[in-house]
């Protein structure tokens, strides 16, 4: 009986061995980071109304208005493209926010005169929006 028990223990140990080197910690969805960007300031800029972001976009942290001209911003961190063809990378997003028509001439998004700092802050905020449903 102890021989069978030892074999069972050895079999279990052999089955678990490949998992010994596995990192079972969940990986964060958002791996995008905007140097010098402050997501709190970015939310304030987006929600403040000075640039009209919510007039065109549904934004998870902004209750009203819920624009539907541009795409909803929920899930922005997980998208692979900006404006349908630009890679969703921090530097590209910052440049796009500063002058959308320069990077995507067909876009309906206007140049609203963001400074580099403001664009970084807004990009940092947008990269906090991981879930496509806004949760």
TrEMBL record:
This is Cytochrome c. One of its GO terms (molecular function) is metal ion binding. Pfam families: Cytochrom_C. InterPro entries: Cyt_c-like_dom, Cyt_c-like_dom_sf. Residues 37-130 form the Cytochrome c domain. Residues 1-20 form the signal peptide. It comes from Microvirga aerophila. Keywords: Heme, Iron, Metal-binding, Signal. SUPFAM superfamilies: Cytochrome c (SSF46626). Gene3D superfamilies: Cytochrome c-like domain.
